[in-house]
């Protein structure tokens, strides 16, 4: 299995710092959720899991988190792909290549506060619209924070993920030689729109699919932005899990761990999907 | 003349890549263009294909000036040095690409692509993705993709340069066969002496942005600048 000592060392480092903490954490969460450990637990029980599914809160929470991640990711992917295809030269050098990094410097919590101030009912945008005479009262501005459709969360998440995808797609545009493929498609008779939809977008999407799934995993676990900009119901998975783990009722803690177990299983399944997708890519 | 190129000039920044190139080519003929790297031969092909724009001169195809026609409307196919198969499409769909964008009926597309796969001995690979086939097979797919739309002119930019000697020889033979079968009119750019002699009905030499077409293969061999004589001497003195 290990041909060189360096392989044993690298495997041990990977095991100690990456696999072991994950396995221990997951094992602890499983044991806690089934009542095997924990101060208030009294031995193996399914009660915590049954209690968790007594109402639809957990299912709704997962669907809601997935919806937020999918909505913000879809907008980010579409906008950044459009930027890469139409303005790739501008974003590969010069001032634009620096500007695109700006939102990366914003921690999620800062972005969440900014959008709370900017998009709120009496926020900056509302006041600008009032001063411009677009609305007759400041309060007439549509509610984009803690709103029914989670527009504030989606905008904030979009803002945070746009630079990542713009950099990804402008990089892929160069490395995957989209320009050459476009010229070739045109030479075979394709109009610009046809080469974009039949060649550029499918290549960029296929190449970025693992990144999209990984970013989805990252976004489905988002905490600060939904906490500050979202409603109290429905809650995202992370907000619900933290409430169960840290808030008032100590008997809810095993349910918090049960949510963490479900979340981990979903994430690991998605990672398996990514690994399977990347498999079998070889050149003869 | 089927293809007539008149006084083409092209400059990149300070460098005059093409000085003044004029030539004509009859239909169903292949003109080999031999030249060293950077002599302007790829630029000449790109200008004819409409990928690059010339500073001066014009290109006539079948008597019609195609200078103002976009590359996708010229119906001239430019084959790059590498096969550049679309990585998101399998072999069948790569060949079918030109027909799909012309919105042909599915049954017609299937029939034409099957025939082309047969001609190129690629039938068993039709469902494979580009990364699952060899370099020679990729190049054959690239040919099939170009030929299936029946272009009046094909521009081949060192299409076999990345292949090993054996595959290259096979592909040269294949090109000769399909050029005859499909009555291809083509410009074949290469930096390989033997390939230039083998592939073209007519042979030309490009140097420093100037193109010279030779009357015959003998004239090409006798000219000092083509390097054929020094190559013959090398093998004779070995």
TrEMBL record, chain A:
Its main location: membrane. The chain crosses the membrane at residues 12-39, 59-83, 95-116, 149-169, 257-275. It comes from the Bacteria. It is a multi-pass membrane protein. Pfam families: BPD_transp_1 (PF00528). Keywords: Cell membrane, Membrane, Transmembrane, Transmembrane helix, Transport. It is found in: Cell membrane. CDD domains: TM_PBP2 (cd06261). SUPFAM superfamilies: MetI-like (SSF161098). Residues 62-274 form the ABC transmembrane type-1 domain. Belongs to the binding-protein-dependent transport system permease family. This is ABC transporter permease subunit. It comes from Pedobacter segetis.
TrEMBL record, chain B:
The keyword Heme does not apply. The keyword ATP-binding applies. Pfam families: ABC_tran. Residues 3-233 form the ABC transporter domain. PROSITE patterns: ABC_TRANSPORTER_1 (PS00211), ABC_TRANSPORTER_2 (PS50893). Gene3D superfamilies: P-loop containing nucleotide triphosphate hydrolases. InterPro entries: AAA+_ATPase (IPR003593), ABC_SmlMolc_Importer (IPR050093), ABC_transporter-like_ATP-bd (IPR003439), ABC_transporter-like_CS (IPR017871), ABC_transpr_FbpC (IPR015853), P-loop_NTPase (IPR027417). SUPFAM superfamilies: P-loop containing nucleoside triphosphate hydrolases. GO terms for molecular function: ATP binding. Keywords: ATP-binding, Cell membrane, Ion transport, Iron, Iron transport, Membrane, Nucleotide-binding, Transport. This is ABC transporter ATP-binding protein.
């Amino acid at each position: 299995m290990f041909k060189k000592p360096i392989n044993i060392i690298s495997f041990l480092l990977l095991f100690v710092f990456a696999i072991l903490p994950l396995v221990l954490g997951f094992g602890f969460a499983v044991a806690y959720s089934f009542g095997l450990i924990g101060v208030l637990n009294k031995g193996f029980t399914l009660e915590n899991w049954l209690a968790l599914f007594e109402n639809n809160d957990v299912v709704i929470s997962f669907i809601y988190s997935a919806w937020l991640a999918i909505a913000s990711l879809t907008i980010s992917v579409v906008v950044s792909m459009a930027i890469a295809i139409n303005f790739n030269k501008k974003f590969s050098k010069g001032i634009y290549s620096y500007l695109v990094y700006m939102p990366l410097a914003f921690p999620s919590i800062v972005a969440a506060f900014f959008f709370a101030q900017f998009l709120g009912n009496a926020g900056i945008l509302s006041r600008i619209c009032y001063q411009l005479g677009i609305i007759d009262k400041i309060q007439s501005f549509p509610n984009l924070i803690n709103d029914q459709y989670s527009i504030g969360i989606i905008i904030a998440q979009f803002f945070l993920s746009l630079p990542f995808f713009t950099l990804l797609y402008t990089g892929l545009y160069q490395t995957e030689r989209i320009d050459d493929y476009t010229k070739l498609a045109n030479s075979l008779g394709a109009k610009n729109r046809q080469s974009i939809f039949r060649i550029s977008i499918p290549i960029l999407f296929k190449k970025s699919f693992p990144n999209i799934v990984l970013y989805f995993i990252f976004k489905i676990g988002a905490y600060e932005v939904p906490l500050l900009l979202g409603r109290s119901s429905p809650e995202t998975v992370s907000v619900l899990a933290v409430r169960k783990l840290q808030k008032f009722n100590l008997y809810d803690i095993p349910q918090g761990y049960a949510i963490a177990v479900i979340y981990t299983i979903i994430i690991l399944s998605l990672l398996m999907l990514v690994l399977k997708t990347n498999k079998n890519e070889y050149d003869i | 003349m089927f293809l007539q190129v008149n006084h083409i000039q092209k400059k990149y920044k300070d460098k005059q890549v093409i000085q003044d190139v004029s030539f004509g080519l009859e239909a169903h003929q292949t003109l080999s263009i031999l030249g060293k790297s950077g002599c302007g031969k790829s630029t000449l092909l790109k200008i004819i294909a409409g990928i690059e724009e010339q500073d001066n001169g014009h290109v006539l195809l079948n008597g019609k000036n195609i200078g103002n026609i976009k590359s996708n409307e010229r119906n001239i196919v430019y084959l790059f040095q590498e096969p550049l198969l679309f990585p998101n499409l399998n072999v069948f769909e790569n060949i079918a690409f030109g027909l799909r964008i012309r919105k042909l009926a599915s049954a017609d597309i299937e029939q034409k692509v099957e025939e082309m796969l047969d001609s190129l001995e690629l039938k068993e690979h039709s469902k494979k993705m580009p990364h699952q086939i060899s370099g020679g097979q990729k190049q054959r797919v690239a040919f099939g993709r170009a030929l299936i739309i029946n272009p009046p002119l094909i521009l081949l930019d060192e299409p076999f340069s990345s292949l090993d000697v054996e595959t290259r020889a096979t592909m040269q033979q294949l090109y000769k066969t399909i050029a005859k079968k499909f009555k291809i009119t083509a410009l074949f750019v290469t930096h390989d002496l033997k390939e230039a002699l083998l592939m073209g009905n007519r042979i030309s030499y490009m140097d420093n942005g100037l193109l010279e077409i030779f009357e015959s293969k003998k004239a090409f061999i006798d000219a000092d600048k083509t390097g054929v004589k020094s190559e013959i001497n090398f093998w004779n003195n070995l």
